[in-house]
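Lab notebook, bench 4. Still working through the backlog of constructs that have no structural model yet. Next entry is a single chain of 126 residues. Request: give me the structure tokens for it.
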Amino acid sequence: MKFPIGIQDFKKVITEDYLYIDKTALIYQLVKGGSIYFLSRPRRFGKSLLVSTLEYYFKGERELFKGLAIDALEKDWESYPVFHVDFNGTNFEDGMTLANKVEDYVTEWEAQYNFAANKQLGAGDR
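Model written out:
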């Protein structure tokens, strides 16, 4: 039995046969039953893995969820654009670091979703 110590990517946990405690029925309830949530948990409590799981769910990657509770609950399995922002592991002491990180994300998403970039606009307007 392999334990996913330090692994924060749902796809890696599933495809590389790590132990996964199925709480996808709760994820389904979270998505279908509410609107805005603030997820506050201590460090090392699975927030990043939850966000990764939500990312693959909203991308409609049903094959990753085969055999899990959500596979039987979800009927539509639609695919949506996902903007996953991860500021983990970056030192933001320099003021431009955050601006550069956001700019990099926006540029990446423009390429991913075939959107013509207008570099004259700031990241927020793009």
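Notes after review: Residues 1-79 form one domain. Residues 95-112 form the longest helix (18 residues). Flag for follow-up if needed.
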